[in-house]
Amino acid sequence: MIKIAPSVLSADFSRLEEQIKLVEEGGADYIHLDVMDGHFVPNITFGAPVIKMLRKVTQIPFDVHLMIENPDRYIKDFVDAGADIITVHEEASIHLHRTIQYIKSFGVKAGVALNPSTSIENIKYVIDEVDMVLIMTVNPGFGGQYFIEQMKEKIIDLKRLIDSKNLNIDIQVDGGIKLDNIKEIASYGANIFVAGSAIFNSSDITNVTRMFKNL
To answer: Binding of a divalent metal cation: at which residues (predicted)?
Structure first.
């Protein structure tokens, strides 16, 4: 089943509650929350306190993407703030299997993200433990980038690996997702799409969210 996860990284932070309501009306399946620390990626966004406040304004599941160093130190904070899915980067997790188990110990779903240059081989031995794999289709840190074409093959390879193990794992893609490429990317096996600027920079946020869903 195809799901849409609007990324508030591209939202108007002065109207965040209002814009979350707009994507909710459009049928968004998740709210994608990019947490950046200025170390793992060259940008800083927000942390658990902001997510905790947003939890009060919507019941849509929170998909929290931790683009941070030492993620284990903060996982409980994000669980307490209301995260439903917590995704950590393979590149930032020294003991990835332990981190996945730690996330799941709180009763939330665990995801693993891969940067464009990171091989799927790096998660081959933990893939049985995760609920979702996030393929970064841009280099992380900034919104509004263009989809890296080589990531299509990576999505296909990941789907092949998941199917070979007969696993039920979501494939999420994040970066450069537009109305004119989502159908093609879905055909490669991805089923959760993070869209930021394509939704929040539009003149009709609710309608564009609905258009993504319909496609």
So the answer is: 32, 34, 65, 174
In CATH terms, 3-214 corresponds, of 3.30.70.2580, 3.90.226.10, 3.20.20.70, 3.90.1150.10, to 3.20.20.70
Cβ contact 134:116 at 8 Å: no
Annotated binding site for substrate: 7, 65, 141-144, 174-176, 196-197
CA distance 146 to 169: 26
Query: Which residues are catalytic, by number?
Result: 34, 174
pTM over 0.85: yes
CB atoms within 10 A of CB 91: 16
Binding site residue list for a divalent metal cation? 32, 34, 65, 174
Q: What is the pLDDT of residue 45?
A: 94
Ramachandran category for residue 202: left, alpha or beta (phi over 0 → left; psi -120 to 50 → alpha): beta
pLDDT digits (tens, 9 = 90+) for 183-203: 999 999 999 999 999 999 999
- Run of H or E residues at 154: helix 151-164
Q: Are strands 170-174 and 62-67 parallel, antiparallel or unpaired?
A: unpaired
Q: What are the structural domain ranges in the chain?
A: 3-214
